[in-house]
Amino acid sequence: MALPFDPTPGLRDPRALAILAKTIYRELRGSGYAEKDVMALAGELLGMVATEVKGRREPRGD
Description:
Shape: flat
Structural class: mainly alpha
Number of strands: 0
Strand content: under 5%
Low-confidence stretches: none
Helix content: 55-70%
Number of helices: 2
Order of helices and strands: HH
């Protein structure tokens, strides 16, 4: 699946994320994943982003 993103940061179509989300959703549902599976994936993605953001906010005690 090709991603609808321009490789240059800052020049992305503002609709790109909505298009990507719809494409991923349709692909997953078309491949037989249930709504609960899509929700579980969304939760995993949110958890990964939250962990990354949290890691940037916390000072590292080296």
